[in-house]
Automatic annotation (TrEMBL):
Residues 319-441 form the Mur ligase C-terminal domain. Residues 108-297 form the Mur ligase central domain. This is UDP-N-acetylmuramate--L-alanyl-gamma-D-glutamyl-meso-2,6-diaminoheptandioate ligase. It comes from Microbulbifer yueqingensis. ATP binds at residues 110-116. It comes from the Bacteria. NCBIfam families: mpl (TIGR01081). One of its GO terms (molecular function) is ATP binding.
Amino acid sequence: MHIHILGICGTFMGSLAQLAVAEGHKVTGSDANVYPPMSTQLEQAGIHLTEGYDPAQLEPAPDLVIIGNALSRGNPAVEAVLDRGLPYTSGAQWLCDHFLGGRWVLAVSGTHGKTTTASMLAWVLEHAGMKPGFLIGGVPRNFDVSARLGESSFFVVEADEYDTAFFDKRSKFVHYRPRTLVINNLEFDHADIFDDLAAIQRQFHHLVRTVPGNGLIVSAPDEAVEQVLERGCWTEVQRFTCEGEDGVRLGDWSAVDVAADGTSFAVQFRGAGVARVEWPYTGLHNVRNGLAAMAAARHVGVDPAVAAEALQKFEGVKRRMECIGRVAEVNVYDDFAHHPSAIETTLNGLRAKVGSDKIIALIEPRSNTMRMGIHQGRLAKACAGADLVLWYEPEGMDWSLGNVVHHSPVPAKIFDNIEAGVESAVNLAEPGSHIVIMSNGGFGGIHQRLLAALEHKHGDAGPASS
C-alpha cells in the first residue's frame, strides 16, 4: 500500500511512518518544514519527503492519506484530498487499526512525564525479555529509535491528550484502547485547543471508559485525576506516591527512604518492600516516573526486582535533561520543558543534585500555551531553583516577559536574539556551572552555538556527562 502522510516530521507522525515502512508499506510524506533530526531518520528509512503542501504531491494518487493534527481546512493538500475523494484517516486511528489491534497496549498519559515514563516502561519490558513494540514521543537512549514493531503482543504507547485531526477533535489517546493505563498527573495545558481543565478531564474520562474491567489503571494521587476517576471507573486502580509528600498518604506503590536528590529509593508494594533503585536521575518527578513504570510492568508479569534492575540500566531520553557537552567544567543540558511545573521540577531536581553550584537557565516559552501567556503568573516562581534565568522573548511574541522578570525570586533578564542569549550565558558561567537550555523546539540552534562559544572562550569541549 502507498501511504502519504501530511505533517510527517512531527515526532508522532514520523514514528508512525517508520512503523509503516517496517510493516512493508511504501511511505511518502510532506511537512511545512522538513529538517533534521526527523527528516534524517525518515530519509534513512527510504521515505521520500516533500517540503510544503502543493497538491501535486498527491500525484499519482496514494492508496491512503494520513493527515496530521497540525493541518486544517484551507491547507492546499487537505483541500485536494477532500475534492478528489481520496481515502484519508488520522495517525491515531491508523495506529489503532494496524498496530494495536489484538495487542496488550500499555499507554502512558498525563500532562508531564509521558515520554520518560513510557521510555522506562518499554525498557523494563525489554530487559525482562518481552521484546515490546512501542511508539514514544522522544528517543529512548536504550533503543535510539522512537518506534518499533516489536516481537511480542505488548505495545507501549505515549498517550497524548492533544486532538486527533481537523475531522476528529477527540484526544489521540481515545483511539488506543489500553489494557494497562498510566495517568501520571493532570494540569491545564494546550490552551490552543482546550478551554479549561474540565475540558481536558472530559477527554481523560473518555480514555478511562475504554480500559477493560480486567485491566489496570496506575495513577498518581492527583486531585484532578481523582475527579476524573470519580466520574466513573470500571477498572482496578493502583496509586503511586513518594514518602513525605505533603498531604499524601502512601499508595499501593510507594517510594520510601528517598535520597534528597532522588538518586536512590526503596520500593514498597502495599506495605511490603519489593525492590530498591539506585540510578543517576534526580528529582521526585523521576522517582514517580520509575514507580509508575514498575507498577505497569508488574501488570504484564515483570517482577519489581527485575524492573528495578532495568531502571538502574536506563540510559534516559534524548532532550530530557540530556547533558550535551562539558566545556571548562561547565555542563550544558538540553531539556524539553513546556510547562511551569516541568521547569520547576527539573530545576529543583538539578539543585538537589549539584548543591550550591551555579545553575543558569535559558528558557524559550515556546509551547502554544506558553506563547499565549496562560501560565505567565507561574513562571517566575517555577525558576526559583536556578541562580540566574535568561528568558528568550522573540519579536512578535503575544505578551511581554517583563512582568516575569520583575517578580523573579532570582536574578533574571530578557534577550531578544540568540546571539545575545549565548553571550550572556557564556559571560555568566564559571567553572562548576550548569547551563540548562529549556525549550520544546529547536531554540534557533542555541545548543551548539552555546557549546561553540564556550569552546572559543575556554578551549575544546570535554566528554558529555550526566
